[in-house]
Structure formats: C-alpha cells, structure tokens
Specification:
The protein contains 16 helices and 13 strands. The protein is of the alpha/beta class. The strands form two sheets. Strands 3-2-1-4-5-6-7 form a seven-stranded parallel sheet, with helices on both faces. A six-stranded parallel sheet has the order 10-9-8-11-12-13, with helices on both faces.
C-alpha cells in the first residue's frame, strides 16, 4: 500500500519554533507487525500528543494490524509503506520508494527509527532525503547480528535509549554518537480502580480472601513463565492464592513456549490455581483486580512498561534484580530477587501472600514512583527537547 498523500505546509525556521509558533514534525518509523512495549510507547505518544504542543508525531509502518488500528483511533496520521521482508529485496525497494516520497513532501523535522530493523531497512533512504535521523534503541545490542551490521552503515545524528541498561550497549554499534536515556512516557491516567477490582474478580470468580498473582507479558522464554510456575509450586499448599497469566503468542517461537508453559502448568500440582487469560485489551482492569505483579525475568528487561503500569495500579512488583526492572523498582515498591532462583522467588511471593500490610505498603508507594519516572507530560517534553537539539545541530 503506498504512503498516504497529504498536503503539507513548510515548517517555520528554528527560531520561530523556539518561540512556540510551529511544532516539531516528527515521523516515527516502525515495522508494526508485533505488539509489545515499543508499540505501547507509540500509541502513548499519539494518544497524549496534546501534552506536548512543541511536537507533532506522525507514524510510518510496514504492516497493518493492532498497532495501526490503535494509532488511527487516536486521530494520528499513519502512513503505510507496504509489507517488507528482508529476504525479498523488491519489497524493500518498494517500501523505500514510498518512504522517500513521504519524506520529500512531508516536511518532517526529524525521523526516529524505532529498533534496529527499520534503521537497517530505511536508514540510508532517510539520509538520502536530507532528514535528521535518530535511532531509539529499545533493546541491548552486541553488534554481532546481521541487522546490526546493516544498520550501523547509517550513523544516526543522535541516539535515544529506554534505559541505562540499553544505553551501556550502544557503543557496540555506534561508538561516539550522543546518547540520551529517557524512560518511556506511560499512560498514567486516573481509573475507577475499586469498581474495576470488584467487576473483574466477580467475572473471574475470585473472592477477596484469595491473593491474585498476575503476570502480563509476551510468551518469550526469558520472561520467566516457567520459573514463575516453579516458584508457585514451592508455596505451601495451605496458602490461598491464584495466578493469572495474561498474554498470548505472536510468533512461532512464542507459540512453542506458550504450549510448553501450559503443559507444564497442567502437569503440576497447582494446575487448578493457574489460569491462562490469553490476549487482553483490559490490562489496567486486571491489574486493579490483582494483588501482586510477578514477572521473574531470566534475562535483563530493556525497560518494562508493564512494571510501571503495575506500580501505577498500586500493586507490589516481584521480579529478578537485573536490567531495566532494577532501574524502575526500589525497596519502597517492590521485591527484587536473585535471578533463576525459584526458592527465593517463592519466599518473596509467600511474604506478600501472608502480609496484607506489606502488600499495602509496597503497593501504596507505587503510583508516586511511576509518576516520578514516567509522567507522560514531562517525558514527552524531554523527547521534544532532544529532537529539537538534534534538528538545530549542524
């Protein structure tokens, strides 16, 4: 599908923009074929664009699907470049032509490539049209992957990282390029938490005496589903708890892991306590109804929007002490445990099951922590500031 044809006006000079006359026109470039943290970020930028009048976001995607639909629902401009497969060069050439045409008529102040795939596919085409190019790194980089070797051929004007954990790896692909660390703006809005809690627990037939432990994540093995099950099975059988595993597979590898997790749960002694809720669009409602959030990662989380959402819902978080999660959580709002240790994880969960006071204390500190790290207005303001600095750089 070709890029949409939309009339544009010429941007004001930088001096006028600094005076607040004309907002920065930023094109966010992403594949759009999956849905996770990056896609949640893009929807937040679109949905809350009124919080930062200095910046006007636009979006270019290759694949139709959930992300495209949610962006369109916000009223944001979404440009479709057409499906791309790196194994089919003609599909890349076609999409590059569509992007080049969009950039020539769009008068964008900057293009942000989200993740290495769009940088590898479209970095050179962006450069050829004279646009400022930023790379937003959402995961760590070693420099060894084929996409990294292709992407590093086009050096961005600036780098943005979603955590210190990820920023520490960027010298592997772009040594010497200025890097800014910015935690994601997260959709922190007031919600009818008590009403949602009562509704969901009634729908799922859970009484108030039962401690609900929730995990919301994609079915990637490093998200720790199997470790979570091992820990739950170690909890004393007389404890009253249930577990909701929320999410569904989005790829063949995730499908394999999903079936492994379900089969492991089915064969365990806790099969009747673990419930797989599948894909849900009402995660905020589920978090309001849960009592504890647990995602025991086996590898470092680049950031972890779901941890912030759990904090905003007032839920204590249990996870492993590594990666972005260790930047988000502290002792005021969560419990960090040693990686790959089912016994310590079970002990942490048991403490929370046993103590409503501990759950309330840790959960009560969560919203302030979430606001301090990820307030959407302040974080989007930071993004506008850094994009503007890049556009003014010679």
């Amino acid at each position: 599908m070709p890029a949409q044809s939309i009339a544009r006006t010429k941007p004001e000079p930088a001096s006028s923009r600094e005076a607040g006359v004309s907002p920065l026109r930023v094109l966010h470039l992403h594949s759009g074929n999956m849905y996770g943290g990056v896609e949640t970020l893009l929807v937040t930028l679109a949905r809350h664009r009124d919080l930062c009048s200095r910046m006007q976001p636009h979006f270019a995607l290759c694949y139709e699907g959930r992300l495209q639909k949610e962006l369109i629902a916000t009223g944001a401009e979404v440009h479709m470049l057409g499906k791309v497969r790196l194994s089919r060069p003609w599909s890349i050439w076609r999409a590059r032509r569509a992007l080049s045409a969009l950039l020539r008529r769009g008068n964008f102040d900057a293009v942000i490539a989200h993740m290495i795939w769009p940088l590898a596919a479209f970095g050179a085409a962006t450069r050829c049209t004279g646009n400022k190019l930023l790379f937003w790194a959402h995961s760590g980089h070693t420099g060894d992957h084929l996409l990294e070797k292709i992407g590093r051929r086009t050096i961005p004007d600036a780098l943005i990282s979603n955590s210190k954990t990820v920023a520490a790896t960027l010298a592997n692909i772009f040594p010497g390029v200025p890097t800014e660390v910015m935690y994601y703006p997260v959709d922190l809005i007031d919600r009818p938490a008590a009403e949602w809690r009562a509704q969901v627990r009634r729908e799922l037939k859970v009484d108030e005496e039962t401690t609900v432990i929730a995990q919301v994540s994609r079915y990637e093995p490093w998200k720790g589903h199997l470790l979570h099950l091992q820990a739950l099975e170690r909890i004393a059988p007389d404890k009253k708890w249930t577990c909701w595993m929320v999410g569904g597979p989005q790829s063949r590898l995730e499908e394999e892991h999903y079936h492994q997790v379900r089969e492991t749960a089915r064969k365990s002694s806790i099969a009747d306590r673990v419930h797989f809720l599948g894909h849900r669009s009402d995660v905020a409602r589920l978090l309001s109804a849960a009592d504890v959030f647990c995602q025991p990662n086996l590898g470092p989380e680049p950031f972890g929007i779901i941890f912030v959402e759990a904090l905003w819902a007032g839920r204590p978080v249990v996870t492993t002490a590594m990666g972005g999660a260790a930047e988000i959580l502290d002792e005021s709002c969560g419990l960090l445990v040693e990686p790959e240790n089912a016994l310590l994880l079970a002990e942490a969960l048991t403490r929370l099951i046993d103590s409503n006071e501990l759950r309330l204390r840790l959960g009560g500190a969560g919203p302030a922590r979430a606001r301090r790290l990820c307030d959407p207005a302040s974080q989007m303001g930071l993004l506008a500031k850094w994009v503007e600095a890049t556009t003014l750089r010679a």
